[in-house]
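FW: tagging you since you asked about this chain on Friday. Here's the raw sequence from the shared folder, copied in full. Didn't touch anything.
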Amino acid sequence: MFLLVIVAVLTFYQFSTGQVTTARMRLVNATDAAAYSAGLWRARAFNYYAYSNRAIIFNEVAIAQTATLVSYAGFITQAVKNLETVSRVIPPLNAYLRAVERVVTNLNKALRIMSAVEVAGRSAYIHALAVSQDVIWGTTNGYVLNQLTNEVMKKTDEHFHGYLIRGTLGDQMTRNHGDEDRSRLKDLVQRSLDEYSVNRGLKVWIPGTTDWLVWRGQTEMIRDHDTTAMDRWQSYDTLSIHHRRWLHKRRTREAMPLAWSGVEIAKDPKQSMDRLNGQASSQKHDNGRAYRLIDRSGFWSARAYLGLPAVRDLDENSKAMRENSRFPTDKVTVIGVIQKKNTINTADQTGLGAGRLKLKDAFADFRRDAAMVAMSSAQVYFRRPPGGNERVEYASMYSPYWQVRLVGVDAQERAMAGALGTLGR
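HL: got it, structure written out here
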């Protein structure tokens, strides 16, 4: 009889142990999945910032190239007009050039209309992308991720509950970079421009003379005339005859402007080109007389542009950036909980055994009725995928290489949940 009692007790104990072990494994796996899901959502948000920032740069470059195209078209139109004017002494040639002038003038007008529509559409799309970054950022806060982790836990078992530990969501690695902080975005846009837009020009010697034809052109983002905001694209093209100075055989001076054109795409148009001062580039000064004529004729201004938007980028003052400015990481830690009642089918919970054969669960009286607790942490980190170009690239919100992985739980975080119950890992 005593032997039967011992066998029964061991059987109930083995049964309860198996149920607890199974529940622990399921809880740990569910907590891992919840932590990984929360980290994955943050990584996807970071990658969305990167993709949208790249799209913003692409569309800004397209707007700059539109300014370049319109400026060059106006430059050709002005050149034909000037040729038509001076050819009046030769009627047959003048009639031909007059017809050409009408064609290029109408084409230039049509191009300006289409360009204004394109700039308006692209600029609106750029700012819509910037707004969408704020919307995505709003889904990465503690409240939303806490709902996400709890949903993942309940998909595994409706009796499972998941909680995001406060303070483990990272120190908000990103922030909106607006106003003066947009200088990095402006620099990336400028460096993404094609060489023709950045600095175009040509210098050709006129045979049999000491004169040169000098063409200069440039497209650049400059500060607004009323504020310091970078909300203005400017493009120009000039052509002048330069005469070589007798005392300086290697130097020439502008003798006669031949053609000129300028374009302004701005949120608050200045309706004129920037003045030639000490800060103006040498390309502008090379054909200074032609450049000054742009405001009198050949100038086009569009106010459809909304300016550079504020975009999300890494926050240099965040805790993660202070710890590692080249490869900052973000982290989320999740607590998974099993409630005791009708959840873990041990001998005690199912009513097996009575009297001396009844085995009372050792984990049934913890605070908040927590039967079992597990913790898991996921880390969001930046790394280029292997293969191809093996160059080192530092973390940024302009490259979509943010990934997630499970990492160990810190002792401090483990202590935060120690009062809830027996830790699963």
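FW: Residues 354-359, 363-368, 421-425 have pLDDT under 50 and may be disordered.
HL: agreed, and The two ends are 41 Å apart (CA to CA).
FW: great, closing this out.
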